[in-house]
Fold each of these.
Amino acid sequence: MLDGRIVEFLRDKNVPIYTREIYLNSKGLSHLSRDSKKKRGAGLNEQDIVKIPDILKSPSAVYFDEAKGKLNVLYCSHAGGTCAKMIKLVIDTKYRRKKEAFSILKTAGYVEEANLKSYAEIFGDVESR
C-alpha cells in the first residue's frame, strides 16, 4: 500500500494515483526475473523476489523518477554497515489495462547508488540504512 507521504508527494506533482494498493501481475513477475537482467547483474535472485512485499511495507527510501514519472522504492541490504546492494522496485501509479486502472509493480532489479542522482527523494535515506 502506498504510504501517505508518497500519496501527498505525488498529488503535489499532479501524478495520478489509481489505487493505493500495489499489484504485481504475471507479466511484471516475468519481466523482473528475466534472464537478460540476470546476465548483466540487475536481475533479482529468488531470495530478494520473495522479499518484495516486505520491501514495499518498509523501504529504506522512496524516490520519484521525474524524467519517467515513475515511483521508485529502494531497499538497502546491510553488509558491514554499508549498503552492499540496493533493490529498486519501479511502481506505475497510473497503469491502465482495458477498463481497469491501478498501481502496479512494473519491474525490479539491483541498482547502484550512483544511478540515483536524478531522482527526487520522497522520504528515507539509503546512506543511513
Amino acid sequence: MKCFSFALLFIAVNALAAFSPDGAKEKPALIQDGAPAQAYIKRAIYEYLDKPPYLSIRAATPFFAKRVDGKDAWISLIEFYCGPSEQLKVHCLTVLVFDPLTGDHEFMTPEQLLEAAGKVLV
C-alpha cells in the first residue's frame, strides 16, 4: 500500500512539474542527478532529524524545477525509514524543496507541496 501511495504521489508531483517556470535555470551542482543529489538528500534529512541512529533512504526522485509559493525551486520526493534501530524504524515520505537563490532548503509534506503548488501554477 505504501509503494502504491508513493507511486500515485510521484505521478501527481510529476504532473505538476509540467507547470514549472519557463526557462528554468540549470540545476545547481549541489543537487545534480546521481551522487551529488543523493549525498545532499541524505545529509539534509540526517541533520533535520537530529542525527537518527537509523536512517535508510529507500527512493528519491531527481530534483526537478517547480514554482512553489511564487518562487522558483527544485524539488525531490523522498521515501525513507528512520528510527532508533532497524527493528523500530518508521516509514516516512517527505519533499525536499531547494531554493537556488539562497542555497537553502526546507521540508514539506506531500500535501503541503500540492497546496503550495496549487496556489501558483506557472
Amino acid sequence: MKVYTTTKSGIQIGCYYEPPLRNNMSEDDELIQRALLGIREPQDFWTMLDWFTYSVLVSVLLSVVISYFAVTGDA
C-alpha cells in the first residue's frame, strides 16, 4: 500500500516509500550467524560431562591398545 502526498506544484512526497522488510531468521540461520561472528554459547553441565566422558573413554581405549601391544610385542 503506497501512501503519498502531492504538493501544489505536483511533487509526490513519499511515493517511493516502502516499509522495512521483516527479518525472519530460522534457528539454523542464527547458528550460522553466531559461527561467523565467533559467538559461542555457554556450555552447560551436561555438555561438559559428555566431553569429559568421551575423553576418559578415549584415554582408556588408548591405554588398553598400548598395553596390549606392549605385552604381546607386536608392532
